[in-house]
Fold this sequence. Notes:
5 helices, two-stranded antiparallel ribbon, two-stranded antiparallel sheet, about 10% strand, mainly alpha, 4 strands
Amino acid sequence: xxxxxxxxxxxxxxxxxxxxxxxxxxxxxxxxxxxxxxxxxxxxxxxxxxxxxxxxxxxxxxxxxxxxxxxxxxxxxxxxxxxxxxxxxxxxxxxxxxx
Length: 99
């Protein structure tokens, strides 16, 4: 968790754990297991509360749902110059995925 790497592309430092953790959070939100109305707070949805950790299978319960979302997101950005702007990227993500 404490390992820090440097991006070959940008030269910025990042935590691989943080990167994977953030994707996991987004995926759980896309699959409606959690919500985060404010970036610093997470809460379980009704669907998330019904999960038994011992029986939870993310490959079956989350992955099929989020793969469709990420594919739609990817298709929205092909050749789009707005990828460089984080605020625009987030707005486009919401528009592409939820319309």
